[in-house]
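Tokens in:
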């Protein structure tokens, strides 16, 4: 049914389908920037594909129903999840097919280092990896629903032999090197137009003022600014987890101190349940900086509120592309009592 809908609503080009082995354990690995990559990976191959997906966040709305209907192996990303790994290994040991996205998420496609999961599964199950490059899929789901017939491409590459076992137990450097090899093979398969959409670098800065006086030397400033400029992460808290984080979204006028404190408290409370939320996405050092900034901002707002002072928070983002393009954006927050004239 889904294959039929894809033919009806999109112009999808499939290349190299015959390269997927017809039998034996196989890992399909692709790039992930939108909703439809997992759909194509699941329904286009002539074999039953068991996808590995996010188990640390619930899916939103109708997507949750669709994902639950097909089924997937949930993995608690950023945490030691032996259950998810063992389920995937069970599939491979039965000569099954696993679908995985080595970057582990969609918050910064093309700029995220690979996770070691694809290498770990390949090594332990003796399973080869088939790289898949998806192009044209960002925003394609909405375009398809609007009958705009987006052009999609799924390009399947040459089989990468299974990672050989290490003599000295788990060798993280070996696992990471193999995962990088897989990710490089994936991105070699995407279109040049798709590559042009991937930023080369991103820079963030933060300015914090209390009653007009700037607070200098904030070691967590750039990391916290990156968080505020990551709509997918903000939406993860608001839409997926249903947490009261509205204060973290830029607003016209003044942001009530109570609303901002409620949002910061919600983030800190969730980090007690899932401490790897930021470190998994930003890396250990920068992820810890976000948590540090959340705590320090809480304390600063308490003191400013008690003294009747207004806090101004300004962030700046610069994204650089390979062709020299620069995209900039800013966020501005004036935080104080709700009845303050601003």
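Residues out:
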């Amino acid at each position: 049914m889904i294959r039929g809908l894809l033919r009806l609503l999109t112009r999808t080009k499939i290349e190299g389908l015959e390269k997927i082995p017809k039998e034996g354990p196989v890992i399909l690995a692709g790039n992930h920037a939108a909703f439809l990559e997992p759909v194509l990976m699941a329904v286009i191959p002539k074999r039953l594909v068991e996808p590995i997906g996010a188990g640390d966040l619930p899916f939103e709305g109708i997507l949750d129903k669709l994902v639950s209907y097909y089924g997937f192996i949930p993995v608690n990303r950023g945490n030691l999840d032996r259950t998810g790994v063992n389920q995937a290994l069970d599939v491979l040991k039965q000569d099954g097919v696993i679908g995985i996205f080595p970057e582990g998420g969609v918050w910064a496609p093309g700029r995220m280092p690979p996770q070691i999961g694809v290498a770990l599964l390949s090594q332990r199950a003796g399973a080869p990896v088939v790289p898949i490059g998806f192009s044209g899929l960002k925003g394609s789901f909405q375009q398809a629903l609007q009958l705009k017939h987006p052009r999609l491409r799924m390009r399947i590459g040459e089989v990468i032999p299974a990672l050989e076992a290490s003599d000295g137990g788990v060798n993280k450097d070996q696992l990471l090197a193999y995962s990088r090899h897989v990710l490089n093979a994936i991105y070699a398969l995407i279109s040049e137009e798709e590559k042009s959409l991937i930023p080369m670098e991103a820079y963030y800065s933060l300015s914090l003022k209390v009653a007009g006086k700037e607070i200098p030397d904030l070691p967590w400033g750039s990391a916290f600014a990156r968080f505020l400029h990551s709509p997918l992460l903000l939406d993860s808290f608001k839409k997926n987890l249903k947490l009261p984080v509205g204060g973290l979204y830029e607003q016209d006028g003044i942001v009530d101190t109570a609303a901002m404190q409620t949002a910061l408290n919600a983030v800190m409370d969730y980090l007690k349940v899932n401490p790897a939320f930021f470190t998994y996405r930003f890396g250990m050092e920068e992820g810890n900086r976000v948590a540090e900034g959340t705590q320090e901002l809480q304390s600063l707002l308490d003191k400013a509120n008690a003294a009747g002072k207004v806090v101004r928070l300004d962030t700046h983002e610069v994204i650089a592309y390979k062709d020299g393009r620069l995209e900039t954006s800013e966020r501005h927050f004036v935080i104080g009592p709700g009845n303050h004239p601003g």
